[in-house]
Automatic annotation (TrEMBL):
Protein name: Response regulator
Boundaries of every Response regulatory domain copy: 2-116
Organism this protein belongs to: Paraburkholderia youngii
The UniProt record lists the keyword Transcription regulation: yes
GO BP field: regulation of DNA-templated transcription
Sequence positions bearing 4-aspartylphosphate: D51
DNA-binding positions: 124-218
Classification via SUPFAM superfamilies: C-terminal effector domain of the bipartite response regulators (SSF46894), CheY-like (SSF52172)
Top-level taxonomic group: Bacteria
SMART domains registered for this protein in UniProt: REC (SM00448), Trans_reg_C (SM00862)
Cellular component terms (Gene Ontology): cytosol; protein-DNA complex
Length: 219
């Protein structure tokens, strides 16, 4: 899943970006509110991790613009301001959760996963589909009781399809979920990864939708 990190502090940003990538997310990092606004206008994100104290456009203003424009992507606010008034202000501006600085990286990742579960209508992290058991936190996939090793790209495609059951995902949408700003998109990569997933998980698991893309059907 592709996340947008909006943080102007280089040290904090580097740590958060590395932690989110290690947790299996694709991360774009914007260092001011203006660049974040442009990113949100051009890219569909699963989640935004947003610092409030930003240059050019403040995090609070950016959040208000997002909600006024009808963008309902989950937002986790990060801020050094820890008073009740600040927390309430951030939530009333449209934030879905709030984490004060300094924070533990494992808590940040856990809160991100919780927001994504809520957005997807799930109460637990495990996803069960047919004979698959998928654990996004552990990044594991099992067929019945047997664990199946996946590459990071295969994992990202599987999760994108599983969290959008019944909704065909175009090649470009799948590429968006796999590749961040600094990553080169490989030619025919989606087709290759889908083929590998079919070999590992079952030939009929992922359906091809002619002239559109791929889908995993609702049970």
């Amino acid at each position: 899943m592709r996340l947008l990190l909006v943080e102007d502090d280089e040290l904090i940003g580097c740590g958060v970006e590395a932690g989110l990538r290690q947790a299996g997310f694709t991360v774009d990092w914007a260092r001011d509110g203006h660049k974040a606004s442009l990113a949100l206008d051009t890219t569909q994100y699963a989640l935004v991790v947003l610092d409030l104290g930003l240059p050019r456009v403040s995090g609070t203003e950016l959040l208000k613009r997002m909600r006024d424009a009808g963008n309902d992507v989950p937002v986790l606010v990060l801020t050094a301001k820890g008073t009740v008034v600040d927390r309430v202000g951030g939530l009333e501006a449209g934030a879905d959760d709030y984490l004060g600085k300094p924070f533990d990286l494992t808590e940040l990742v856990a809160r991100c996963r919780a927001l994504l579960r809520r957005a997807q209508g799930r109460s637990i992290d495990l996803i069960r589909y047919q004979n698959l058991t998928v654990n996004p936190a552990a990044q594991t996939v099992q067929i019945d009781e047997a664990r199946v090793p996946l590459t990071s790209r295969e994992w990202a495609i599987l999760l994108q399809l599983l969290t959008n059951l019944g909704i065909p995902q175009s090649r470009s949408r799948l590429e968006e979920s796999l590749y961040g700003w600094q990553e080169e998109i490989e030619s025919n990569a989606i087709e290759v990864h889908v083929s590998n997933l079919r070999k590992k998980l079952g030939a009929n698991l992922i359906k091809t939708v002619r002239n559109i893309g791929y889908v995993m059907e609702k049970e």
